[in-house]
Amino acid sequence: MISLAIAAVSANSGMLNWEWLQVIIVVAYYAIPTMLVYSLYKGRDIPFQWMFLVFGAFFVTCGTTYAIQTWSLWFPESLISEFMTAITAFVAGSSVLLLLTLMPFALALPSPARLEAANLALENEIAERRKAETALAELAGLLEQRVQARTGKLCRANNYLIKEVQERKKAKKALQQSEAELRIKARELERALQKLQESQAQLVHTEKLSALGELTAGIAHEINNPINFIDANISYAHNYVKDLLGLVNLYGKYYPNPAEEIQEEIETIELDFLSEDLPKLLASMKVGTDRICAIVASMRNFSRLDTDGMKFASIHEGIDSTLLILQHRLKANGKSPGIEVIKQYGDLPLVECYAGQLNQVFMNIISNAIDVLRDSSNLSVASVQKNFLTIQISTEVAEGDRAIVRISDNGPGMTEEVKAKIFNHFFTTKPAGKGTGLGLSISCEIVREKHCGCLECFSGLGEGTEFIISLPIRQKRLETSRLVEMQEAV
Q1: 279 C-beta neighbours (distance < 10 Å), count
Q2: Which of 21, 246, 382, 452 has the highest Cβ tally under 10 A?
Q3: Distance from C-alpha of 249 to C-alpha of 41, rounded to nearest angstrom
């Protein structure tokens, strides 16, 4: 339309120069889409941006068409002008179609009054939100103050709790230390009590043995006097009887026919039997008195009190005295077979020792062997005949000037667990009431502590048991003085 108006004016006037006006029109065509693109660039949130781009394209095509028409005034070229006219028509039609689709959206846009009302509502809402934000800020400040106050209280409570926890930890640590100290003291008291009980039991046992030794020595002394009297007079009585019997025989030789009353008396008293049996009776009495004298000597030897310290004594005599006292337990009785004692004594010199205490050691070991063999002898008669119960005792001198005593039996032996405990105080495998558990422990102390010796046990199940006692034949001076002091202290 603008080009038609310009063409009409130029045709009517004919005298004006429209070149600059046409240039301005072309610039206007191109300026409009440029401003639209710039507006879209600056306002990227503008709705329907594609519509503005279509309008800009329409103005660009219109401006290009006008520029070509203006160019064709000087240089007529109908093809280019027609081509651009077609493009302009296409863009114009597309714009119309797009406007038709845009119309419902454009009609749906609110009016300025509605927009103003919405704006007012938004402003009211913003004011209310600002009031709410102010109230929330005040509430937040109040809450912050309360939180700070509560935090302060919690911090003070936390510090108090920390101090209390630390104090409790200190108290707990002190309590644990005191408990540990009490446990240590309790263990020490328990060990002291156990040691006291062991010492008390050992002292009681020693006192019993001492009293038994004194009693045995007294009995031996009391028996010794009348037995010596009887033993000394038996030989005289034997001689007297021999003389009387010789006189009776001589009387019968010279007076073969005595009076009837004498003959009746001879037949009544059985003079021939009496003459034959009376010497035998006196001989058996002599054997009995000798036996009693040997027993008394063994009792006196076994019951030595060792009050004068160590002395040189015969180990063999101590063993023989112990066996003589235990002779009644070695004999067969009822269903229990006898126990054979095999002695293999070596050439053993006198040993410096406490003889009475060593006899106690021999008594404990041999008594235990007898108990074990008696317990294991509950067999049939046939098996007893095949398995003789024996105790073997041997002595020898070992290198280093030491006396060795071996006491073994062919009993059932013992386990490693039992063997490890046999020297402990109050340990016993015997039934309740039959053993105190002190025999071997006291024997071990006598050998090791009082004689500087060694007491060992070797045993295995089914292999019997062997005790080996090793003693120095002569005690060293320092050891002897220490043992004397210990003996005096006891």
Answers
A1: 13
A2: 452
A3: 179
Give the max Cα distance, the chain: 231
**Taking the mean position of all CA atoms in its chain, how far away is CA 86?**
107
Give me the sign of the Cα torsion angle 187, 189, 192, 196.
negative
Task: Summarize pLDDT for 112-150 with one digit per residue, the tens.
Answer: 777 788 888 888 889 888 888 888 888 888 888 888 888
Cα(254)–Cα(407) distance, integer angstroms: 65
Q: How far is CA 305 from each of CA 199, 310, 360, 448, rounded to the nearest angstrom?
A: 20, 11, 11, 19
Q: What's the token pair of residue 417?
A: 């667990």
Taking each continuous run of H as one helix and of E as one strand, the counts in the chain are 14, 7
- Is there a contact between 412 and 461 (Cβ–Cβ < 8 Å)? yes
Q: Which two tokens stand for residue 189?
A: 């008291």
Cα gap 220→229, rounded to integer Å: 14
pLDDT tens-digit series, residues 418-444:
877 777 766 677 765 566 667 788 888
Strands 454-459 and 389-398: unpaired
**Smallest Cα–Cα separation from 469: which of 334, 339, 363?**
363
CA distance 432 to 434: 6
Provide the pLDDT for residue 460.
83
Reduced DSSP (H G I as helix, E B as strand, rest coil) percent helix, strand, coil of the chain, to 5? 70, 10, 20
Q: How far apart are the first and last CA of the chain?
A: 150
Residue that is written with structure tokens 């105190």 in the block: 436
Question: Using CB atoms within 10 A of its CB, is residue 76 exposed (0-12), middle (13-18) or buried (19+)?
Answer: exposed
- Other Cβ atoms within 10 Å of 294 Cβ, number: 13
Residue 460 CA to residue 464 CA, distance in Å, equals: 6
Q: Are strands 389-398 and 339-344 parallel, antiparallel or unpaired?
A: parallel
Sort strands 454-459 and 339-344 into parallel, antiparallel or unpaired: unpaired
Q: Which residues, other chains included, contact 418 with Cβ-Cβ below 8 Å and sequence gap of 6+?
A: 429
User: Given strand 454-459, what is the order of strands in its sheet?
Assistant: 339-344, 389-398, 402-409, 465-472, 454-459
